[in-house]
Amino acid sequence: MDLETRELRYFVTVAEELHFGRAAERLGMAQPPLSRAIQRLERRLGAVLLERDRRGVALTPAGEVLLREGRAVLDAATAAANRVRRAGGRIVLAVKAGADHELLSRLLPAYRDEPGAAEVEVLLCGIGEQAALLREGRADAALVHRPFDDVAGFDVEELLVEEQVAVLPARHPLARRATLTMAEIADVPDLPLARWPRLEGGYPPGPGPEVRDQAQVSQLIALGLALLVIPASSRAWQWAEHAGVPVVDAPPVTTLIAWQPHSRSRALAGLVRAAVRVGEETGLGVPEHPAMSAGSIK
């Protein structure tokens, strides 16, 4: 039995809202036909998906399964439509704003020399958004950073491994140090670490300010209200009021290029090859990393 994407969209909306009135409003339809559509879906599947009583609506175990699978199907359909609209036209590369400046400045001209190169649109995004953009089909590839970004389910190639530095106010006494440790950074009461949102939501505990973008944290550092630990190459956006000091025991950060594993785009394959080559040429490349073979993506 085939399920229509319209039916799945109706059910997923009701399951997310757990309220037929709000779901109908989201869908731009009246409530009675929505209720009838869910009832028809339950009859066709031979399973109760939603428990309805005076207290409201709740998912059954079968409904929880269909919510999870239905979201995946709808996401895949949306991603496919987005990729089809771009087919043969351009490649969208998702990049965290403020990161990978040096790599991008070399990658884009290097890719233009690849046979069959397409136009590249650089899509600047916020913290941890690259994976969602890939899954939704709004991006064809992304530059991501391990251990910070979610790369589950993607094909990846490692490009760079680099150390981290502390970015702090240039006038602060720590700015005159040759190196720092994480313990020393944590023991500065007047200069707390800025806190970025977690991938799963919310902020980690701590005294530092909650930040969401590069401009915000840059100004806080310049004002002497926060410091930040970042990959060394990200210092390209530092202000004159900033100083960068290597943090000797901070975990290294690996930059990767990620893409959907089912891709057969030759233009995308060329972008990945160019990225690996540029990573190796920077001198920060992963030791003894093999170049991407032509057959690993088509």
Layout of strands and helices, then pairs:
Elements: H1 5-17, H2 20-27, H3 31-45, E1 50-53, E2 56-59, H4 61-86, E3 90-96, H5 101-112, E4 119-125, H6 130-135, E5 141-146, E6 155-162, E7 164-169, H7 182-186, H8 214-222, E8 228-231, E9 242-246, E10 253-259, H9 266-281
Helix pairs in contact: 1-2, 1-4, 5-9
Keywords: DNA-binding, Transcription, Transcription regulation
Protein name: Transcriptional regulator, LysR family
GO molecular function, one term: DNA-binding transcription factor activity
Question: What does this entry show, briefly?
Answer:
With 298 residues, this protein is an alpha+beta fold. Helix content is 37%, strand content 19%. Strand 1 and strand 2 form a beta hairpin.
